[in-house]
Specification:
heterodimer, A: 468 residues, alpha/beta, Heat Shock Protein 90, Rossmann fold, 7-stranded mixed β-sheet, 5-stranded parallel β-sheet, 14 helices, B: 389 residues, alpha+beta, Elongation Factor Tu (Ef-tu), domain 3, 2 domains, 8-stranded antiparallel β-sheet, 9 helices, FIST_domain_N (chain B)
């Protein structure tokens, strides 16, 4: 009965009523969802005392930890990347340093080449001046002296530059041998005594008979630098070159009564391009390389160098060399060569140098010494003048660097001697201070002279060759 | 530091039905002069009083902690009705443990005292190390039906600071009646065990799952937060709404369905599964974890559990090397899913391969969070650079 009534009620409802009822229900459901969400949103700021809130709180905390860990990891990664970058920069710096070193080396080569090319005409000029001086009248003499001094200064500047660049490049090495120290110092003393006399200075030399182990070439450069400095910076008084034995060593002194060095500058005088304040006033043209070269060479030679100085009272440089002994045979050889040099008169000398000016200069100088000179710019030219195989000669003066694309002096000398039954003694001339060339000359038994050749040296060399 | 000897971590299991026999078999495998601490998981099938007595008798005064399970993970892989245990060598591990008897009263002060106490225990027992937050982790075993896990874990985590923690809720083979934790000679319910372990070995605490969000969402419109019961979803009876969402008749809702069609809450950018425990007669749904009115549940899709597990453990092992052991707390619904898909053998092989030992849980804990549908645990690896080659 009741069911029937309900059915009839439903039947009476229109589709619109049903639809409305459904929408109402849906609306109510959505409102419930909204309420739940609102409750949740509004409750979300509360302290986590309820289980779900505790869970949510933990999740948020854990997420924060995870994010921070991630951030730390990222920072760590960045740091690692930075370290890697720094490593790369270091690598690039190393490469740049290598390049700079290469550049330095090529600069050295350049300076060496330029020095060599400058030396050639300079050499010729000095030979001419020297020849002129031998027979000049009184009027020309002072001027010639000035020219000679100027040329010598120029030469010394070029040599200094060349030396400095070679020392920097580390291509200079010591070739030590045992020799009587006097052999070197006597010559220097004589040379600088004259220079000192020109300035009105007293020059004292205390010789020694000790034999030392050193490289005569390099040692000579040290002594020359020290001695010329001493004379340059001293106006009155004395320059002393002295030796004193100290146990297994010998001290070589170069002392002067010159301007001295201020205490505040004594540490820096061995630095490149550093010159004492007063030194600048005294000598305008200096490069400030002299003492730095001295210091570098003394290190290569392992000869300790020290200096004491007082301003306006003078300086004292002190070099310590190891003392050694010569073998008997060597001593005899030395004795022979130190005999009174025979006159060069009548000596038949062949000169081969591709520089015409040098050829001419040589000829003038040698002829003044009474030599008979055959000078040529090349081997073919020499052959035009003499029969190299049989013509009589005493010595061959050979330039090492001949024209480009032709044989070098060593080869030419070899050719000439190969044609002869008795080989000629050879004096090799070069501005090239390479160790290798030095050794090759030694192997062939050739004497090696460096350009610019000083007349005195050439004379001694010729005498030496003749005695040998 | 020399290489860890093989007994740095020992694991053993017994499928003996008799409690005495099972306890003895475990003890025979684990006991050695340097054994310092034992952790075990057992089936609810055992007579727990008898088992407690037997374990007490075998291990005497050795510290021993454990809990009941919804299935064990033994050297065979997924297992049932067994007792499985892990023995820690005192030369490499220092362990302290504490029982929380009343979970609902656990406050921050308790958590701080507990943490201090555990650190002290660890320091006193440490032989070759100084326990600190870098060489220490915490394992929690909780009554899985206590509905207090969230508060206890969150509170504990606040006190632990940066010490990593993980754990699992004890199970009872889906009976959903009573779960137990074991400590110092007896089983307790409505209780939690906190174990602190410091070690010279390398370890990594992890948690992983294979779920991805899909589009449908449900809003909880009526819930009993205290009992983890959701009465309504989208203002409809919860079971009905869920059944319609997953396309299953409401009377067929069971563990396999819950396992295959998980729901999750989104917090910021991450999804956290809220595992359904059961559908009730009043069309409400009970959960294994905290729920609340107004939360939005997202339907999740299951990717490959196998692939996820492989990549997770391979990744950790690439850092730690081959593990001595992985202590795993594996959600019981993962196992239900694998069983339904007939994938237990493959999964067991994978667990064996990675030396996973542990149990099937009613919930996992990870750094203060109580979560579901995950494998959560710790990988204990070889000290780097020591054992390689």
């Amino acid at each position: 009965m009741g069911d029937a009534k309900n059915d009839s009620d439903n039947a009476r409802q229109s589709p619109w009523d049903l639809h409305e009822a459904r929408l109402m229900a849906e609306n109510a459901r959505l409102r419930r969802i909204c309420d739940a969400l609102i409750e949740r949103v509004e409750g979300s700021g509360m302290a986590p005392t309820a289980p779900y809130a505790a869970f949510q709180h933990s999740v948020v905390l854990a997420q924060q930890v995870r994010e921070r860990t991630q951030a730390l990891r990222e920072t760590n990664r960045q740091l690692m990347a930075e370290i890697e970058e720094r490593r790369r920069v270091e690598q690039r710096l190393r490469e740049a340093t290598d390049k700079a070193e290469q550049a330095n080396l090529s600069k050295t080569k350049f300076v060496a080449a330029v020095s060599h090319d400058l030396m050639q005409p300079l050499n010729a000029a000095r030979l001419f001046t020297s020849a002129l001086q031998e027979d000049s009248d009184e009027r020309a003499s002072p001027m010639l002296n000035h020219i000679d001094t100027a040329l010598r200064d120029l030469e010394s500047l070029i040599t200094t530059l060349s030396d400095a660049s070679k020392l920097d490049a580390g291509v200079v090495s010591a070739e030590t041998m045992a020799f009587p120290l006097s052999q070197l110092l006597d010559v220097l003393a004589e040379e600088f005594r004259q220079m000192a006399a020109l300035k009105g200075l007293r020059f004292r030399y205390v010789p020694t008979s000790l034999v030392v182990r050193s490289d005569p070439q390099l040692l000579s450069r040290i002594m020359r630098n020290l001695l010329s400095n001493a004379i340059r910076y001293t106006d009155r008084g004395t320059v002393l070159l002295g030796c004193r034995r100290r146990g297994a060593e010998v001290e070589v002194w170069v002392a002067d009564t010159g301007i001295g060095i201020g205490e505040d500058q004594i540490d820096s005088i061995f630095q490149e391009f550093k010159r004492g304040k007063r030194a600048v006033e005294y000598h305008e043209r200096g490069l400030g390389l002299g003492l730095s070269i001295v210091e570098k060479i003394s290190r290569i030679l392992e000869h300790p160098l020290s200096v004491t100085s007082r301003e306006n009272q003078g300086s004292r440089f002190l070099l310590r060399l190891p003392v050694t002994t010569l073998s008997q045979a060597r001593q005899q050889a030395m004795a022979q060569s130190s005999e009174e040099p025979s006159a060069l008169t009548g000596l038949r000398v062949w000169v081969v140098d591709n520089d015409r000016a040098i050829c001419a200069g040589m000829r003038t100088l040698l002829e003044q010494w009474g030599c008979q000179v055959v000078a040529a710019e090349s081997l073919p030219e020499l052959r035009q003048q003499v029969d190299v195989g049989v013509a009589g000669a005493h010595v061959l003066i050979m330039d090492y660097h001949l024209d480009p694309d032709t044989d070098d002096g060593l080869t030419v000398a070899g050719r000439i001697n190969a044609a002869r039954s008795e080989p000629l003694p050879v004096i090799m001339l070069t501005a090239d201070r390479e160790q290798e060339l030095k050794q090759r000359c030694a192997t062939h038994g050739y004497m090696l002279l460096y350009k610019p050749v000083k007349p005195m040296k050439l004379k001694l060399a010729l005498q030496h060759v003749l005695v040998g | 530091m020399t290489a860890a000897p093989p007994q740095a971590v020992l694991t053993a299991y017994s499928d003996a039905r008799d409690e005495q026999v099972a306890a003895r078999q475990i003890a025979e495998s684990l006991i050695h002069p340097h054994l310092g601490f034992v952790l075990f998981f057992c089936s609810i099938e055992y007579d727990l009083d008898r088992l407690a007595g037997a374990l007490n008798g075998e291990f005497q005064n050795l510290p021993l902690c454990g809990c009941t399970s919804a299935g064990e993970i033994t050297a065979r892989g997924y297992d049932r009705n067994t007792l499985v245990a892990i023995g820690f060598d005192a030369r490499f591990f220092s362990a302290g443990h504490h029982l929380i008897e009343h979970m609902d009263g656990f406050g921050l002060l308790d958590a701080q005292q507990l943490t201090d106490g555990l650190l002290t225990q660890c320091r006193e027992r440490a032989r070759n190390l100084t326990p600190n937050e870098d060489n220490t982790f915490v394992l929690t075993l909780l009554d899985g039906l206590s509905v207090n896990e969230e508060i206890v874990i969150a509170t504990l985590n606040a006190a632990l600071g940066s010490i990593p923690s993980f754990g699992g809720s004890a199970g009872d083979d889906y009976r959903l009646a009573q779960t137990y934790v074991y400590c110092d000679g007896r089983f307790y319910s409505d209780a939690a065990i906190v174990v602190m372990i410091s070690t010279v070995l390398d370890f990594e605490v992890f948690s992983t799952h294979h779920l991805h969000p899909s589009t449908p969402k449900l809003v909880v419109t009526a819930a009993d937060a205290e009992r983890r019961v959701v009465h309504e979803l989208d203002a409809e009876p919860a079971a009905l709404a869920y059944a319609r969402l997953v396309g299953v008749p409401v009377e067929q809702l069971d563990d396999v369905v819950f396992a295959r069609y998980p729901l999750a809450v989104r917090i910021n950018d991450h999804y956290y599964a809220r595992a359904i425990q059961k559908a009730n007669r009043d069309m409400s749904l009970s959960f294994y974890c905290a729920v609340e009115n107004g939360i939005v549940l997202t339907a999740m899709r299951n990717a490959s559990l196998h692939d996820n597990l492989t990549s997770t453990l391979d990744d950790i092992e690439s850092r730690l090397g081959p593990p001595w052991v992985v202590i795993g707390c594996d959600c019981c619904l993962r196992r239900a899913e694998l069983e339904a898909d007939d994938e237990i053998p493959q999964a067991s092989a994978l667990l064996r391969q990675h030396r996973v030992v542990g149990f099937c849980t009613y919930g996992e804990q990870y750094n203060g969070m109580h979560i579901n549908h995950t494998l959560t645990g710790v990988v204990i690896g070889r000290k780097m650079g020591v054992d390689d080659g």
